[in-house]
TrEMBL record:
UniProt-listed CDD domains: HDAC_classIV
InterPro entries: HDAC_classIV, HDACs, His_deacetylse_dom, His_deacetylse_dom_sf, Ureohydrolase_dom_sf
Similarity remark: Belongs to the histone deacetylase family.
PANTHER family named in the record: HISTONE DEACETYLASE 12, HISTONE DEACETYLASE HDAC1-RELATED
Protein name (record): Histone deacetylase
Keyword Disulfide bond attributed: no
GO terms under biological process: epigenetic regulation of gene expression
Pfam families: Hist_deacetyl (PF00850)
GO molecular-function term, one example from the UniProt record: hydrolase activity
Keywords assigned by UniProt, alphabetized: Hydrolase
Ranges for domain Histone deacetylase: 56-285
Organism: Deinococcus koreensis
């Protein structure tokens, strides 16, 4: 592994066998033939580690054990498969376990060096007792619960900037006063029956850079400042980009980079450990999506390397 002038690294589940076999979403985040380009670009920037599996007992802290047992054994209905977005196979369970394991590993990194990165994750449609929207395990809620239960954080922010509302996350943390769930999303998009986050910023179709960034500044920033988190999760969805198959907003690549710079810059300046997960992205142009993903990594490294003062 090459030497890097910084202590940061990222985790990926995309090199595991489950990602090269078995079912995929009808519109998966990136066609399999392009995944190598994303991983190569990431590996030029920082060490890239394979995702570890999440211990099942951590999943059971937030998900109904009976629900998990049925999915582990493949005892699911066609309706449940349709709600998830693809048919059950053992690979579906392995993907969920490794993606959530990557977020937990990134959480441990953030506690140690300030920044943790998962090239996947952000499965925010998973509920405590059922799967939805390509989401079987809610990786961010699992890691947030681990932090709070272990006393390693007292106030956890979940900043969800995916184009879709984080309905599962909002539901699972509705009664948790030590968390702040913030979702900035397209109002008319999936899920069509939404939950109530602590702060929902619902945007009209076609919202572009200026209005989106103004919403972050005027509506999100004051609420986050009042909450005073001591740990943050950032769902850096690239599905806000114009041209996304499942998105209804119209941000430019420059707008997405400005969004990322605001989030990572805030965390680095505030000294708040942060985990970034990539969440959704289904752009019609795979190269646009890859560039956005790598831009998110560049933004994170720029902010946190400057904070660490290592170069």
């Amino acid at each position: 592994m090459p030497a890097f002038p910084h202590p940061f690294r990222a985790y990926t589940a995309f090199r595991r066998a489950a990602y090269s076999a078995g079912p995929a979403p009808r519109r998966q985040f990136l066609p399999r033939e392009f995944i190598g380009a994303l991983l190569d670009g990431a590996a030029e920037r920082l060490p890239l580690l394979d995702a570890p599996d999440l211990p099942w007992e951590l999943a059971e802290r937030v998900h109904d054990p009976a629900y998990l047992a049925r999915w582990r054994q493949g005892e699911v209905t066609r309706a449940e498969e349709r709600a998830l977005g693809f048919a059950w196979t053992p690979a579906v369970v392995e993907r969920g376990l490794s993606s959530a394991g990557a977020t937990l590993a990134a959480t441990r990194d953030a506690l140690e060096v300030g920044l943790g990165l998962n090239l996947g994750g952000g499965t925010h449609h998973a509920y405590a007792d059922h799967a939805e929207g390509f989401s079987f395990l809610n990786d961010v809620v699992i890691s947030a619960r681990w932090l709070l239960d272990s006393g390693q954080a007292r106030r956890v922010l979940i900043l969800d900037l995916d184009v879709h509302q984080g309905n599962g996350t909002a539901s699972m943390l509705a009664d948790e006063a030590r968390s702040l769930t913030v979702s900035v999303h397209a109002e008319g998009n999936y899920p069509f029956s939404k939950e109530r986050s602590d702060l929902d910023v619902a945007l009209p179709d076609g919202t572009g850079d200026a209005a989106y960034l103004e919403g972050l500044n005027s509506r999100v920033a004051p609420v986050v400042a009042d909450f005073r988190p001591d740990f943050a999760f950032y769902l850096a969805g690239a599905d806000v980009l114009a041209g996304d198959q499942l998105g209804r907003l119209a941000l430019s690549p420059a707008g997405v980079r400005a969004r990322d710079d605001r989030v990572f810059g805030w965390a680095a300046r505030s000294g708040v450990p942060l985990v970034a997960v990539m969440a959704g992205g289904y752009n019609r142009d795979p190269q646009t999506l890859i560039s956005a993903r790598l831009g998110t990594l560049d933004s994170a490294l720029s902010a946190f390397i400057q904070r660490a003062g290592v170069i």
